[in-house]
Structures are given as structure tokens and as C-alpha cells.
Design a protein that fits this description.
Elements: H1 4-23, H2 27-45, H3 48-58, H4 62-70, H5 75-78, H6 81-95, H7 100-113, H8 118-134, H9 138-151, H10 158-170
Helix pairs in contact: 1-2, 3-4, 4-6, 6-7, 7-8, 8-9, 8-10, 9-10
């Protein structure tokens, strides 16, 4: 909910308070307050709204996930670069059911910003391949499928890749 800079400032202030408690001899208070500062540092690296969106998507609650994503008004100011990549990935997944052109923009921006896990990057490229296939851009779709296959080291997306390849043969 807080801006990323505010989270770091709060963590620094709480850490200073913890040091003060240590200097006064209140060791348990200092440790507890230091753990509180750790929460703000954790939420700097892992955005709380994005974590809730992942939970909503796991439960197949797309409406709730979309409402949570809409709470992030300015993603470039509120999120780090990787978090903004995941924000765009999830917005692309949400809009791919209604508007393929907008979803394509979200997926391309997510790939450009970067995703921390290779299978997430493979999934974004596979989604882009599906969009390219529906728009009759066969060469681009084949290239994206090949890139997704290279990134998918543990064959988590093997079934989806096979399905897209069989659909490509029909075109």
C-alpha cells in the first residue's frame, strides 16, 4: 500500500528505534522492533498487493485479482522493476480474455522489464505466441514458441507448447 521509498524510510526509522531500545538495555524490545523493520524491508522486495493477487489467481478468483491490481495506480512509482514486470504479466493474463491487443502490450512490457523466474518468462512468451497465432503471424509465433521451449527447463509448459504447435499446423 505504501510507496517503495516510504517503506525504506519506515524501515530505517524503525531500525533506529530498535538501536535506541538496545542502548537502553531493552534487548527483547529491540529484537521485536527489529523484526518489525524486517517486515517493511520484505515488503519492499515483495509487494503485498502482488502477493495477494498471486493467491487470488491460485484460487481462480479473477475478479478479485483484477480489483487488487487496479489498486496499484502508478506501477512505475510504487513497484520495483521486477515487480512491475510481474504486474504487467498479471494484467496481461487478466486482459487476454477480453482484449488481445492490450494483453499483447502488457506481455511485451513484462518481458522488457524482466521477470525473475525463467518459467514465468517462458509463460509470457507462450502467451505472446498464442496471441500472434490468433492474429495470423505464424513466423513470430513459431519463434516465440521456440524461445519458450528453451526457457522451460523443467518441462512445466510442455503440454501447452504441444497444443500450440498442433494448432499452428492447422493454420
Amino acid at each position: 500500500m505504501f510507496n517503495k521509498i516510504i517503506k525504506l524510510v519506515l524501515a530505517a526509522i524503525i531500525t533506529a528505534w530498535s538501536v535506541y531500545e538496545f542502548s537502553q538495555g531493552h534487548i527483547l524490545n529491540g529484537i521485536s522492533i527489529l523484526l518489525l523493520a524486517g517486515v517493511f524491508v520484505f515488503f519492499y522486495f515483495k509487494n503485498e498487493i502482488l502477493l495477494l493477487v498471486f493467491l487470488k489467481l491460485r484460487k481462480q478468483d479473477f475478479d478479485g485479482a483484477n480489483k487488487l491490481l487496479d489498486k496499484i495506480k502508478n506501477p512505475s512509482a510504487a513497484l520495483t522493476q521486477k515487480q512491475e514486470g510481474y504486474f504487467n504479466l498479471m494484467k496481461g493474463i487478466m486482459t487476454s480474455q477480453t482484449n488481445l491487443t492490450q494483453a499483447e502490450k502488457y506481455f511485451k512490457k513484462a518481458i522488457k522489464l524482466g521477470l525473475s523466474m525463467k518459467h514465468d518468462l517462458a509463460m509470457a512468451k507462450l502467451q505472446l505466441a498464442g496471441i500472434a497465432m490468433t492474429k495470423r503471424r505464424k513466423r513470430e509465433a513459431m519463434n516465440l514458441i521456440a524461445e519458450a521451449k528453451k526457457l522451460d527447463k523443467h518441462n512445466m509448459l510442455a503440454d501447452q507448447i504441444k497444443q500450440l504447435k498442433t494448432q499452428m499446423k492447422r493454420i
